[in-house]
Design goal:
By secondary structure, this protein is an alpha+beta fold. It has a single domain, classed as Muramoyl-pentapeptide Carboxypeptidase, domain 2 (2-Layer Sandwich), CATH 3.30.1380. The protein has helices at residues 8-11, 44-59, 73-83, 92-95, 157-171; strands at 5-7, 16-17, 41-43, 62-68, 121-128, 175-178, 181-187. The strands form two sheets. The chain has a five-stranded mixed β-sheet with strand order 2-4-5-7-6, with helices on one face. It is globular and about 45 Å long. Mean pLDDT is 93; it is low at 207-212.
Length: 215
């Protein structure tokens, strides 16, 4: 593990996660380079801001479910390579039904350099603490479509309200939203604004400070 980074589930008590790019359930249709275990990593500063968000969410009856945090540069490179490969249709209907995969970069859904690789970004949603049910947001994670934009037309009023609740929680905790993706937030005050890391997420990364966690 790079110095200054932690496994977020180690330091955020009660956090839920599902590292989508370590699974077959993502827009590439298979685990992505650099994601060798289903864990989510971030900087200490990201963890602290998420702790604040977690507390704000809990007051409203919600918990946080994390989908992605730190993203190795090799994963970004794989996304770019994948976007240039011939269409096989395996994930198109779920993740990019109305565009071609070659358009993902131009339309802002895939970046050649990602804030995730700086350890300052998080992809997440809300779930209800009383039922564990995910909160309806009017579209799934990594749905590359205008329906995923904040304030998108064509979703239910309750779904729009839920997106606004998540946005309020995150922006009040030191994050910036990203207009094209309701689930993506990045730190305003990031510790490594000019560094794109490429260490893999592995079990060998478990040089975590034992006992370091938020109350």
């Amino acid at each position: 593990m790079e110095k200054g980074f932690v496994f977020l589930d180690e330091v955020l008590r009660g956090i839920r996660w599902d590292a989508k790019y370590a699974t077959w359930d993502n827009f590439t249709g298979k685990p992505v380079d650099g994601y060798e275990v289903n864990r989510i990593v971030g900087t200490n500063e990201l963890a602290a801001a998420l702790h604040a968000a977690q507390e704000r969410a809990a007051v409203l009856g919600y918990g946080l479910l994390l989908w992605d945090g730190y993203r190795p540069q090799r994963a970004v490179d794989r996304f770019l390579q994948w976007s240039e490969e011939p269409e096989d249709g395996r994930t198109k209907s779920k993740h990019y039904p109305n565009i071609n995969r070659s358009e993902m970069i131009r339309k802002g859904y895939v970046a050649t350099r990602s804030s995730h690789s700086r350890g300052c970004a998080i992809d997440l949603t809300l779930y209800r603490l009383d039922t564990d049910a995910l909160v309806p947001m009017g579209g799934d994670f990594d749905l590359m479509d205008v329906i995923s934009h904040h304030e998108a037309k064509g979703i239910a009023e309750a779904e729009t309200r839920n997106r606004r609740i998540l946005r309020s929680i995150m922006e009040s905790s030191g994050f910036l939203s990203y207009e094209c993706e309701w689930w993506h937030y990045s730190l305003i005050n990031e510790p490594y604004p000019n560094t794109y890391f490429d260490f893999p997420i592995t079990m060998d990364s478990e040089r975590v400070m034992k006992g370091y966690s938020f109350p």
